[in-house]
From TrEMBL:
GO biological process, one term: ubiquitin-dependent protein catabolic process
Low complexity: compositionally biased ranges: 256-267
Protein name: 3626_t:CDS:1
Organism this protein belongs to: Paraglomus occultum
Assigned keywords, A-Z: Ubl conjugation pathway
GO molecular-function terms, A-Z: polyubiquitin modification-dependent protein binding
Keyword Lyase: no
Length: 267
């Protein structure tokens, strides 16, 4: 059962369902938020009449404080809270409780499902009992959209991204030695430390602000240095070849030659 509530003094109205019929005759007990919506005081006259509302399909709401954004899952909280309501009326400010805190929410817009047979009179309220309701959120009252921070322009140092690792020396076998005769061991010489020869890491560029670096100037080699460099090139495989079977071939050729000489003398 749904009812329309009217405050004839202020021309404010809303809709509500019935929780229990336990009030005394001539009295109605309303939630505090509904009395605020209707601008009612305890003991004021209220007109109540039966209402036939369509099932709602869409509602747009607006939280009245930005604190509503602190809720981690507002959709689940609102879905659970709306189960305690039978109707929603445009312009009402309902209240929901979550984590011992009261949140006020204004109903900005309501839409009902299509009335194919035009059985229901036009109304600014809808029934939300056993219906699929699409909920849209408006920005909370007093909410200020945060301004995006301007992007910092990258400097040449950011674009080059040269990582410099300083060359360090490392010493192997840090422990001290012991001799069988008990004598002290001489300290290791400076040459026993292994020095890193890593040269592939470029040095860091300490450029002043606003200065661009496009590489070092190319200095071509002189003709004399180019000639010396070309002459000093080592030729690969410049020696003469050797075979392991050279002597064997010479031995095979000697008997054939002597046999040829013998045959000629006999003739």
């Amino acid at each position: 059962m749904l009812f329309e509530l009217n405050n004839t003094n202020t021309q404010r109205h809303s809709h509500a369902g019935v929780l229990e019929f336990i009030a005394e005759e001539g009295r109605a007990y309303l939630p505090h938020w509904m009395m605020q919506t209707l601008l009612l005081e305890p003991g004021d006259l209220l007109e109540i009449k039966n209402a036939d509302l369509q099932l709602g399909s869409y509602v747009k709401i607006q939280p009245q404080t930005p604190d509503f954004l602190d809720i981690s899952d507002p959709k689940a909280v609102l879905e659970n809270a709306l189960r305690n309501f039978s109707t929603l009326t445009k312009g009402d400010v309902i209240q929901i409780s979550y984590n011992e805190k009261i949140y006020e929410i204004m109903v900005l817009e309501v839409r009902s499902k299509p009335d194919l047979y035009q059985e229901h009179p036009p109304s600014d309220g809808v029934s939300i009992v056993e219906t699929d309701l699409e909920v849209d959120f408006a920005p909370p009252l007093g909410y200020v959209e945060p301004k995006p921070l301007p992007k910092r322009q990258q400097t040449m140092a950011d674009k080059v991204k040269i990582e410099y690792t300083p060359t360090t020396t490392r010493t192997l076998f840090h422990g001290s030695g012991q001799r069988l005769n008990g004598k002290a061991v001489k300290e290791g010489e400076a040459d026993s430390t292994v020095k890193s020869t890593e040269k592939s890491v470029p040095p860091a560029l300490n450029l002043p602000f606003g200065k661009l670096f496009f590489g070092y100037k190319l200095i071509p080699l002189s003709d004399e240095k180019m000639t010396n460099a070309n002459e000093g090139n080592d030729k690969s495989f410049a020696g003469s070849g050797q075979t392991l079977r050279t002597r064997k071939r010479n031995q095979d050729r000697t008997p054939s030659t002597s046999s040829a000489i013998a045959s000629s003398s006999s003739s």
